[in-house]
Amino acid sequence: MIKQFVKYLFLAIIINSFYLSCTEPVDFDQINDFKTTPVVESSLIFFDEPATRFLDNGNEIATIQDFIQVDFFKSEFITDNLAKAEFVFETNNAINRGFQVRVAFLNNSGQTQHTFTVSIPPSTNSAPVTSRFTELFEGPSLVALKNTTKIVFTLNMLPGAAITNNTSGRISLKSKAVLYFNLESSSL
Amino acid sequence: MRHLSMTFVFITCFSFGQNKQLLYGFSEVPQSLLLNPGVKIKNSGFVGVPFLSHIHASAGTSGITVYDVFADNGVDFNTKLQNAVYKSKARNFVSINQQLELLSGGFAFGSSFEKNEYISFGIYQELDVIGYVPKDYAILGLEGNQNNINRVFDAGHLNASGEVISVFHLGYNKKVNNLFTYGVRGKIYSSIINVNSTKNQGSFVTVQGQNNIYTHIFDLDLEVKTSGLANIKDGEADAIYKDLKKRMLLGGDLGLGFDVGFTYQFDKQWTFDASILDVGFIRHTKDVENYSVRGRYAFEGINPFFSEAGAGQTADDYWSKVEDEFSAIFEADTTKTKFTTWRPVKWNASLNYAFGEKKEKDCNCIKGESEYQNAVGAQLYAINRPKQPQAALTLYYFRHIFKGLSAKTTYTIDSFSLYNLGLGLSANLGNINFYVMADNFLQYKNVYNAQSVSLQLGFNYIFKKK
């Protein structure tokens, strides 16, 4: 009898010990605090051309303009999670003329939301002149970027000594976008 | 998100690996036949209590623990999460295994007065999940590429598989003589759900560009294969239930497999046994849906003024081409290509030394086969997993405590930890056999910090040997 009792007691203790395991406090709701702020860099536009590229049958090409249609900035992911952006331009000019790159952001109905201009100073002695320009998108300009479906690029050659077949030097532009994301569990 | 955290809770409450070091060789429990069909059987028959004869749950994490990430200790959650990501390695994993026996039974037969052959059979359901830490994806998600220029992100870090199957099995065991017993078991698998993505390759890297500041190189070969999911995805609750039932009862994607094993008794005290389990495959042909992301593309921006293709190509044409390249890679292709999965093969082997003969005083067991009261031994276990096999070494002590009550304690070294202690008990009350086994006792003071836990329990009705 006692033996039986001991047997059951022993079993009960063992079985219970399987279930009565202890825990230190954990809080799974913390997952709602999840936040990550990755910074993504992506190449944007570029070009690298000799001075003579701005000649067409002896006539100067003062303005080149083209556009692209982009869905990217209006996408849900960007709209919800992009907290800040920078467009960074690095230029290198050995031509004795200044240039401007104008970038215009248009919405679906073709209205300009935002513009900025990158100035590229001329080279005075054929030595390359480097410059750097950063456009920051924050607040209203970030909203404008998120409305953008079309970007118009305009390259203007500023007045100066005439370009001939003998004009030396090259102009180059490289650029990147720096996208600061803020991803939170509520928006995922 | 809430579902995700609930899943975490579930995993941690019922979590452990597939190793059943406590049950292996524990021949008082009929289900030890599922770990070695060639075990020396101690009963003349059994019937498992339906749905209660074998309940097994195990889960484990190698590397970080749930407590590392979710501790309520005032440390910012994102800090804990980041630390966990940086601490873990791509070979770290989370694994979950659960089994539920629906029906089982067995009986001895044979021409001689001592029945030396045994048939056992049953149906069980199994869930098996393994996911490796997608470390490079996590780093990219947490940091982005800005601080990781020139770092090659390995797309192969996405590696996971999960399945729910039912298994119909029939085993044969024969005691050839007092020295040698062997057994085989044939299995038919009916796959209910399978999701696997284990052969991913490729990389993403941002390097200094030729024409622009950066070149981004995408080289991806990723695929997720599924069967049994497509119907669930868009079905109605009723239809889904019917479909799952059908797939469970041999209406799913079928496969075949086998187990083999033996026990060899060197002398009265020394035995060696070994088994190979789940050598088998499942052919997935029904309700298959696979998604793949494949391609190689180097992106360095666009030249809106002087397009490479020369006059005639507008900037928008140029950009459209770039967009096409991206969608060619990133828009997943859906295919219905049939596929085959291999079950995770498991190996067991143990060397066993019995000692301490039972005094005759209150023995009513069979004469002639003197029962030792104690045994010690070492057991090796290995399982084939997508990235690499995992192995475990167990040292154990087995003891008949008193009539009908036996216990086994184990000390296990495995992928999860170096100090896993386990305890298993089997009690016979009349003809009812009850067993319960769990491991990682040292971790029970804070189960959330356990690397792994496992639990098995069940009830059987045993026909004793006459």
Instruction: Show the largest interface.
Output: A-B, 56 and 62 residues
Structural class, from helix and strand content of chain B?
A: alpha+beta
Major sheet size, sense and barrel closure of chain B? 21 strands, antiparallel
Average residue pLDDT of chain A: 87
Our estimate of the beta-strand percent of chain A is over 45%
How would you portray this structure in words?
The complex is a heterodimer of chains A (188) and B (466). With 188 residues, chain A is an alpha+beta fold. Chain A is elongated. Chain A has a single domain (36-187), classed as Jelly Rolls (Sandwich), CATH 2.60.120. Chain A contains three helices and twelve strands, in the order αβββββαββββαβββ. In chain A, the strands form four sheets. In chain A, strands 2-11-6-9 form a four-stranded antiparallel β-sheet. Chain A has helices at residues 2-19, 76-81, 140-146, and strands spanning 35-36, 39-50, 55-56, 59-60, 63-69, 82-93, 99-106, 112-120, 129-137, 150-157, 170-181, 183-184. Chain B has 466 residues and is an alpha+beta fold. Chain B has one domain (2-464): Porin, CATH 2.40.160. In chain B, 16% of the residues lie in helices and 49% in strands. Chain B contains seven helices and 21 strands. Chain B has a 21-stranded antiparallel β-sheet that branches. In chain B, β3 (93-109) and β4 (117-132) form a beta hairpin. Residues 1-16 of chain B have low confidence and may be disordered. The interface between A and B is large, with 56 and 62 residues.
